[in-house]
Amino acid sequence: MTAPRIDTDTDTLRRLPKAVLHDHLDGGLRPATVVELAGEAGHTLPTTDPDELAAWYFEAANSGDLVRYIATFEHTLAVMQTREGLLRTAEEYVLDLAADGVVYGEVRYAPELMLNGELTLPEVVETVQEGLAAGMAKAAAAGTPVRVGTLLCGMRMFDRVREAADLAVAFRDAGVVGFDIAGAEDGFPPADHLDAFEHLRRESVPFTIHAGEAHGLPSIHQAVQVCGAQRIGHGVRLTDDIVDGKLGRLAGWVRDRRIALEMCPTSNLQTGAATSIAEHPITALKDLGFRVTLNTDNRLVSGTTMTREMALLVEEAGWGVEDLRTVTVNALKSAFIPFDERTALIEDVVLPGYATAL
Known about the structure:
Strand content: 5-15%
Number of helices: 16
Low-confidence stretches: 1-6
Helix content: 40-55%
Largest sheet: 4 strands, parallel
Strand order of the largest sheet: 1-2-3-4
């Protein structure tokens, strides 16, 4: 059951320590940065006013269609093709997390989408890691430390997924903590890339898979039972396997084995995967004991932050501070970093941070 309601003051919620597992680098740029870098690159935007651009993204993403939602990334990717663009956007990404109260984050992106300049796949990864490291150093110096790990993505509708998996293996000791496949889900089943997932398992690299957002239970089944995903990106359609509180075999498997669900309420509304915050599956699945986590997905595209996602659940779904603490601890339990590091973040940072709000 949800806990008693808490003060929804934005500053109060922002101060709560947070963990985000599902957030795309190319979906979280600052509008002003997009405008400036686009001007330097000669790329035409819908508007060159940062506020108007932010509004354009939010409106364009509210189509209720995942394919159209993904199409909005054209303009962010256009400014992430150079070393300078990648360094800046990665550094700012970390600083924005820190300003939002995030103490641990995992950021994902597809290196193959950033090759229109002169960078190679390894150079893309190296550059992003350099930018993230610079951001973490600045955040720590400002007294708001945040740790950020990287997930490399393969685009499920293209033919370079195995290359992306190879990159994840090659950079796993250099800041890359895991792997994912992204892109249009319907019509591009995860099992199409089974060789990549088998390779990752052999090399002990953890991975999550976008599933159960634009496609239903077969997508989740393939991700978990065929490919062996340790987490599920979104997974809102898992409720199709739950009737009157009774779990089907797939839902029971996911819950019993503590397979984390990377849920993104605002994004799910925009893509049509959910109908409202109040009725979003995250609340019912949390109350049924699933390991649900709360995420932003795309900060610019969805016009959101972790603070905003928390506020929406408090205001529209009746969440309390214990619910927010639960999903934060869940995220850290399922983070793709070593057990002792996860435990330290929970015991030394998250639990003390929430104790003052209880």
